[in-house]
Specification:
Elements (H helix, E strand, L loop, with lengths): L5 H24 L8 H12 L4 H27 L4 H20 L8 H11 L4 E2 L2 E2 L7 H15 L8 H20 L4 H25 L5
Antiparallel strand pairs: 1-2
InterPro entries: DUF1275
Pfam family, one: DUF1275
Keywords: Membrane, Signal, Transmembrane, Transmembrane helix
Length: about 220
Protein backbone atom coordinates (compact mmCIF):
# COMPACT_ATOMS: atom_id res chain seq x y z
CA UNK A 1 0.00 0.00 0.00
CA UNK A 2 2.85 2.42 0.69
CA UNK A 3 3.81 2.63 -2.98
CA UNK A 4 0.30 3.45 -4.15
CA UNK A 5 -0.08 7.13 -5.02
CA UNK A 6 -3.10 9.10 -3.86
CA UNK A 7 -4.32 9.29 -7.45
CA UNK A 8 -3.97 5.52 -7.71
CA UNK A 9 -5.69 5.13 -4.35
CA UNK A 10 -8.68 7.17 -5.48
CA UNK A 11 -8.92 5.07 -8.62
CA UNK A 12 -8.65 1.83 -6.64
CA UNK A 13 -11.33 3.16 -4.27
CA UNK A 14 -13.63 3.78 -7.23
CA UNK A 15 -12.98 0.22 -8.37
CA UNK A 16 -13.68 -1.05 -4.84
CA UNK A 17 -16.98 0.84 -4.89
CA UNK A 18 -17.89 -0.85 -8.19
CA UNK A 19 -16.85 -4.23 -6.78
CA UNK A 20 -19.03 -3.80 -3.69
CA UNK A 21 -21.89 -2.66 -5.92
CA UNK A 22 -21.60 -5.79 -8.08
CA UNK A 23 -21.08 -8.15 -5.15
CA UNK A 24 -24.31 -7.00 -3.51
CA UNK A 25 -26.23 -7.70 -6.72
CA UNK A 26 -24.58 -11.09 -7.11
CA UNK A 27 -25.31 -11.96 -3.48
CA UNK A 28 -29.01 -11.28 -3.98
CA UNK A 29 -29.27 -13.00 -7.35
CA UNK A 30 -27.41 -16.17 -6.35
CA UNK A 31 -29.38 -16.61 -3.15
CA UNK A 32 -26.64 -15.71 -0.69
CA UNK A 33 -23.33 -16.39 -2.45
CA UNK A 34 -20.58 -13.96 -3.38
CA UNK A 35 -19.03 -13.04 -6.71
CA UNK A 36 -15.94 -11.47 -5.14
CA UNK A 37 -15.60 -12.69 -1.53
CA UNK A 38 -14.26 -16.22 -2.03
CA UNK A 39 -13.58 -16.90 1.67
CA UNK A 40 -17.33 -16.73 2.22
CA UNK A 41 -18.00 -19.07 -0.69
CA UNK A 42 -15.39 -21.54 0.61
CA UNK A 43 -17.13 -21.66 3.99
CA UNK A 44 -20.53 -21.93 2.31
CA UNK A 45 -19.37 -24.83 0.15
CA UNK A 46 -18.20 -26.74 3.21
CA UNK A 47 -21.41 -26.12 5.12
CA UNK A 48 -23.64 -27.04 2.20
CA UNK A 49 -21.71 -30.23 1.44
CA UNK A 50 -22.39 -31.51 4.96
CA UNK A 51 -26.11 -31.41 5.46
CA UNK A 52 -27.04 -28.48 3.29
CA UNK A 53 -28.06 -28.11 -0.33
CA UNK A 54 -25.73 -29.85 -2.83
CA UNK A 55 -26.75 -27.38 -5.56
CA UNK A 56 -25.56 -24.45 -3.40
CA UNK A 57 -22.29 -26.26 -2.72
CA UNK A 58 -21.83 -26.76 -6.46
CA UNK A 59 -22.60 -23.12 -7.15
CA UNK A 60 -20.10 -22.03 -4.48
CA UNK A 61 -17.36 -24.15 -6.04
CA UNK A 62 -18.30 -22.94 -9.52
CA UNK A 63 -17.95 -19.30 -8.45
CA UNK A 64 -14.59 -20.09 -6.83
CA UNK A 65 -13.32 -21.68 -10.02
CA UNK A 66 -14.48 -18.88 -12.31
CA UNK A 67 -13.00 -16.27 -9.96
CA UNK A 68 -9.60 -18.01 -10.09
CA UNK A 69 -9.83 -18.38 -13.87
CA UNK A 70 -10.51 -14.65 -14.15
CA UNK A 71 -7.41 -13.91 -12.08
CA UNK A 72 -5.32 -16.31 -14.18
CA UNK A 73 -6.51 -14.83 -17.48
CA UNK A 74 -5.86 -11.24 -16.40
CA UNK A 75 -2.54 -12.22 -14.84
CA UNK A 76 -1.47 -13.77 -18.15
CA UNK A 77 -2.50 -10.60 -19.98
CA UNK A 78 -0.39 -8.54 -17.55
CA UNK A 79 2.71 -10.44 -18.70
CA UNK A 80 2.17 -9.50 -22.34
CA UNK A 81 0.68 -5.98 -22.27
CA UNK A 82 2.47 -2.77 -21.37
CA UNK A 83 -0.50 -1.77 -19.24
CA UNK A 84 -3.16 -4.43 -18.98
CA UNK A 85 -5.43 -2.50 -16.63
CA UNK A 86 -7.69 -0.68 -19.15
CA UNK A 87 -8.28 -3.95 -21.02
CA UNK A 88 -9.08 -5.88 -17.84
CA UNK A 89 -11.58 -3.31 -16.59
CA UNK A 90 -13.20 -3.00 -20.04
CA UNK A 91 -13.57 -6.77 -20.44
CA UNK A 92 -14.88 -7.04 -16.87
CA UNK A 93 -17.50 -4.44 -17.76
CA UNK A 94 -18.46 -6.37 -20.90
CA UNK A 95 -18.79 -9.61 -18.91
CA UNK A 96 -21.02 -7.99 -16.31
CA UNK A 97 -23.00 -6.19 -19.00
CA UNK A 98 -23.62 -9.46 -20.83
CA UNK A 99 -25.18 -10.92 -17.69
CA UNK A 100 -27.27 -7.77 -17.42
CA UNK A 101 -28.49 -8.26 -21.00
CA UNK A 102 -29.40 -11.88 -20.23
CA UNK A 103 -31.41 -10.64 -17.27
CA UNK A 104 -33.03 -7.99 -19.45
CA UNK A 105 -34.30 -10.53 -21.98
CA UNK A 106 -35.61 -12.84 -19.26
CA UNK A 107 -32.83 -15.45 -19.38
CA UNK A 108 -32.02 -15.40 -15.67
CA UNK A 109 -29.67 -18.07 -14.37
CA UNK A 110 -27.57 -17.96 -11.23
CA UNK A 111 -24.90 -19.87 -13.16
CA UNK A 112 -24.37 -16.87 -15.45
CA UNK A 113 -22.89 -15.08 -12.42
CA UNK A 114 -19.78 -17.15 -13.00
CA UNK A 115 -18.95 -14.50 -15.61
CA UNK A 116 -19.34 -11.83 -12.95
CA UNK A 117 -17.08 -13.76 -10.56
CA UNK A 118 -14.45 -14.06 -13.30
CA UNK A 119 -14.67 -10.31 -13.86
CA UNK A 120 -14.21 -9.63 -10.15
CA UNK A 121 -11.23 -11.97 -10.03
CA UNK A 122 -9.63 -10.20 -12.98
CA UNK A 123 -9.98 -6.80 -11.34
CA UNK A 124 -7.77 -7.94 -8.47
CA UNK A 125 -4.79 -8.05 -10.87
CA UNK A 126 -4.78 -4.32 -11.51
CA UNK A 127 -2.07 -3.53 -8.94
CA UNK A 128 0.57 -6.25 -9.18
CA UNK A 129 4.10 -6.40 -7.87
CA UNK A 130 6.36 -9.47 -8.08
CA UNK A 131 3.38 -11.58 -9.10
CA UNK A 132 1.29 -10.55 -6.08
CA UNK A 133 -1.62 -8.15 -5.70
CA UNK A 134 -0.57 -5.01 -3.84
CA UNK A 135 -4.15 -3.79 -3.40
CA UNK A 136 -7.14 -6.02 -2.68
CA UNK A 137 -9.87 -4.46 -4.80
CA UNK A 138 -12.87 -6.75 -4.37
CA UNK A 139 -12.48 -8.16 -0.86
CA UNK A 140 -11.98 -6.46 2.48
CA UNK A 141 -10.23 -8.94 4.77
CA UNK A 142 -6.69 -7.92 3.83
CA UNK A 143 -7.70 -4.27 3.87
CA UNK A 144 -9.12 -4.60 7.39
CA UNK A 145 -5.89 -6.30 8.55
CA UNK A 146 -4.00 -3.33 7.11
CA UNK A 147 -6.39 -0.99 8.94
CA UNK A 148 -5.81 -2.79 12.23
CA UNK A 149 -2.03 -2.62 11.80
CA UNK A 150 -2.30 1.06 10.90
CA UNK A 151 -4.31 1.69 14.08
CA UNK A 152 -1.59 -0.10 16.05
CA UNK A 153 0.97 2.20 14.41
CA UNK A 154 -1.17 5.20 15.36
CA UNK A 155 -1.48 4.12 18.98
CA UNK A 156 2.25 3.53 19.19
CA UNK A 157 3.15 6.87 17.61
CA UNK A 158 4.67 5.34 14.47
CA UNK A 159 2.25 6.82 11.92
CA UNK A 160 -0.63 9.24 12.19
CA UNK A 161 -1.95 8.80 8.66
CA UNK A 162 -1.46 5.14 7.61
CA UNK A 163 -5.05 4.28 8.65
CA UNK A 164 -6.57 6.57 6.04
CA UNK A 165 -5.83 4.42 3.00
CA UNK A 166 -7.27 1.09 4.18
CA UNK A 167 -10.25 2.87 5.72
CA UNK A 168 -10.99 4.59 2.40
CA UNK A 169 -10.77 1.29 0.50
CA UNK A 170 -12.98 -0.56 2.96
CA UNK A 171 -15.45 2.33 3.10
CA UNK A 172 -15.64 2.43 -0.69
CA UNK A 173 -16.43 -1.29 -0.83
CA UNK A 174 -19.05 -1.02 1.92
CA UNK A 175 -20.76 2.01 0.39
CA UNK A 176 -20.66 0.28 -2.99
CA UNK A 177 -22.43 -2.74 -1.50
CA UNK A 178 -25.09 -0.51 0.02
CA UNK A 179 -25.55 1.27 -3.29
CA UNK A 180 -25.72 -2.03 -5.19
CA UNK A 181 -28.42 -3.34 -2.87
CA UNK A 182 -30.38 -0.12 -3.35
CA UNK A 183 -29.94 -0.23 -7.15
CA UNK A 184 -31.13 -3.84 -7.24
CA UNK A 185 -34.59 -2.59 -6.27
CA UNK A 186 -34.83 -1.37 -9.86
CA UNK A 187 -34.02 -4.87 -11.13
CA UNK A 188 -30.96 -7.02 -11.66
CA UNK A 189 -30.62 -5.98 -15.31
CA UNK A 190 -30.68 -2.25 -14.62
CA UNK A 191 -28.25 -2.52 -11.71
CA UNK A 192 -25.78 -4.69 -13.64
CA UNK A 193 -25.88 -2.33 -16.61
CA UNK A 194 -25.22 0.57 -14.22
CA UNK A 195 -22.16 -1.33 -12.95
CA UNK A 196 -21.07 -1.82 -16.56
CA UNK A 197 -21.28 1.93 -17.15
CA UNK A 198 -19.09 2.55 -14.08
CA UNK A 199 -16.46 0.12 -15.29
CA UNK A 200 -16.45 1.57 -18.81
CA UNK A 201 -15.78 5.02 -17.36
CA UNK A 202 -12.99 3.60 -15.19
CA UNK A 203 -11.50 1.74 -18.17
CA UNK A 204 -11.41 4.98 -20.17
CA UNK A 205 -9.81 6.77 -17.21
CA UNK A 206 -7.14 4.08 -16.96
CA UNK A 207 -6.52 4.21 -20.71
CA UNK A 208 -6.06 7.98 -20.60
CA UNK A 209 -3.65 7.70 -17.66
CA UNK A 210 -1.74 4.96 -19.43
CA UNK A 211 -1.51 7.08 -22.56
CA UNK A 212 -0.17 10.11 -20.72
CA UNK A 213 2.61 7.95 -19.27
CA UNK A 214 3.57 6.39 -22.61
CA UNK A 215 7.24 6.90 -23.68
CA UNK A 216 7.81 9.85 -25.91
CA UNK A 217 4.56 11.56 -25.05
Amino acid sequence: MKRVTWRGLLLSSALAFAAGFVDAIGFIETGGLFVSFMSGNSTQAGVELLGGEPSMAMMSVFLLLTFVLGVAAAGTLSLHARDHRPYVVAVAGIAIGSVGVLELVGMHSAWSYGLVAAAMGAINTLYLEDGRARVAITYATGTLVSLGLALAALLNGRSRTAWRRPLLLWGSLAVGALSGAAAHRFGAAASLLAATAMLVVLAVTLAVRSGTRAPGR
